[in-house]
Model the fold of this input.
Amino acid sequence: MNLNIIGYLIYLTITSIIIVGVGKICYKNGNILVSALIPDHEDLCHKANQILLVGYYLLNLGYCAMTLISWEKMLSFHQLLEVIALKSAIIIGTIAIMHYLNIFILTKYIQKLI
Done:
């Protein structure tokens, strides 16, 4: 029995929920940071934050879809769970690294302005 289709659905569901959840949190809290970068231009800050959110979704959801081509044929549920856990952990780690890298870059940019 080929379990890949089941694995794809589970993996895409898990990673999509994580990506959308993190995106909403970062979007909501990112308005404050973007407002600090561009003071006195509230509409521009809101639009810039929306563009950042769309880019985040496209990059991460696209990466999730691209990882599907590297899956081997799943022959057991144990192998299926192992691959889903590994691939999900890679996505979560990538999101965390990107988040901290963005915070570091923006912090250095703000310090340069001050």
The chain has three helices and no strands. The CA atoms of residues 27 and 53 lie 6 Å apart.
